[in-house]
């Protein structure tokens, strides 16, 4: 009985190890951020964008998750993103960003978009900023 258990566990260990090896070797090499991306990251931090918006599901819930905004077919154009940054909305204030800051922030959001997927679905966020489980 002990021998069968030992053999079973050994086989499961090798199967699991093979799975981990295959999974880890298929990951893409991360794209190194450019100077514009790093500048956009500084704008993101200095303007406290994370207090209302999320990246990778982390951050505030008053605004939408912006992890994959750049690949959104309706909201991902540079002009669309800059219009919100420049004018704000009823919930988002005008942050008085310069053209250079907006370009850097767009570069940062495009870089983030290529690096992963958001974990928070639109159906999980209530308009009050609370998370619905």
Automatic annotation (TrEMBL):
InterPro entries to which the protein is assigned, alphabetical: Cyt_c-like_dom (IPR009056), Cyt_c-like_dom_sf (IPR036909)
Parts of the chain that traverse the membrane: 6-23
Record-annotated Cytochrome c domain positions: 35-113
Keywords, alphabetical: Heme, Iron, Membrane, Metal-binding, Transmembrane, Transmembrane helix
GO molecular function list: electron transfer activity; heme binding; metal ion binding
Ion transport recorded as keyword: no
Protein name from the UniProt record: Cytochrome c
Species assigned in the record: Chitinophaga silvisoli
